[in-house]
Amino acid sequence: MTTAQQKEQTASNQNRDDAEIRKFEALASRWWDPNSEFKPLHEINPLRMGFINRKVNPAGQRCIDIGCGGGILSEALAHQGADVTAIDLAEASLAVARLHQLESGLDIRYENIAAEAMADREAGQYDIVTCLEMLEHVPDPAAIVSACAKLVRPGGHIFLSTINRNPKAWLFAIVGAEYVLNLLPRGTHDYAHFIKPSELAFWCRQAGLQQGELTGMTYNPLTKKYRLENDVSVNYLVHYTKPDEEKAV
User: Fold this and answer.
1) E strand map for the chain
2) I want to staple 67 with a disulfide (CB 3.0 to 4.6 A). Which of 14, 51, 134, 205 is the partner?
């Protein structure tokens, strides 16, 4: 094993939760079933892409999707003309993504590698970095944020999303979504891993990023519709940029 491979393996082992990976690998075959456990991801993906499109046109941009799973967001970015690299630590999910890629015909580079290792290898190589619905599933989310900042070029864009940590988020994201409405399998989320916007903002400032728009994502159980609005008490998305060094001078 080369020194570079040893570094990649170390980074992967340091910031991975094997129980979380097994959880998603067990469901991997159903990633592209819009009526499966991944139905919420299919339904919110147009909202996520709409948020991204308001900030930057992905066409012709080099993008990396961190924690890509079965490739739902990755394919949406590629459909808009982005040059997409997508990474995940769950090999079964990547296998499904590659299989669906044969059907879609999209040119996406999928790789089983940790974000930190990728940042060491391809620092500053991406115009757009996305890490959506993933930070709450790793032991050290701050390290992922740091990797995102390292991967993006000066002047580039970073999009993050996760779940707030407060009593309402516990009630809606766990009790409501997993036990009452059955939108997600029970045990999908661990409340202790939820992240307050202030915590995420602190990690991003430490990484030298500038915050842009912060918006919430809500679900109406009566209409069964998701929407973006100002309420960030449960799910939220945020846009960051990396300062352009030349402009700063």
Assistant:
1) 62-66, 83-87, 108-111, 126-132, 152-163, 210-220, 225-229, 235-241
2) 134
Give the phi and the psi of residue 112 in degrees, each rounded to 5: -90, 95
What type of residue is 81?
G
Burial class from Cβ neighbours inside 10 Å (0-12, 13-18, 19+) for residue 131 reads buried
Q: What is the mean pLDDT of residues 48-76?
A: 97
Distance CA 58, CA 81 (A): 6
Closest CA to 34 of 24, 42, 46: 42
Which pLDDT does position 71 carry in this prediction?
97
Which candidate, 75, 68, 61, places its Cα nearest to that of 127?
61
Binding site feature residues for S-adenosyl-L-methionine: 48, 67, 88, 132
Binding-site positions: 48, 67, 88, 132
Q: Average the pLDDT over 4-20 and give the result.
A: 62
Predicted TM-score (pTM) of the model is 0.90
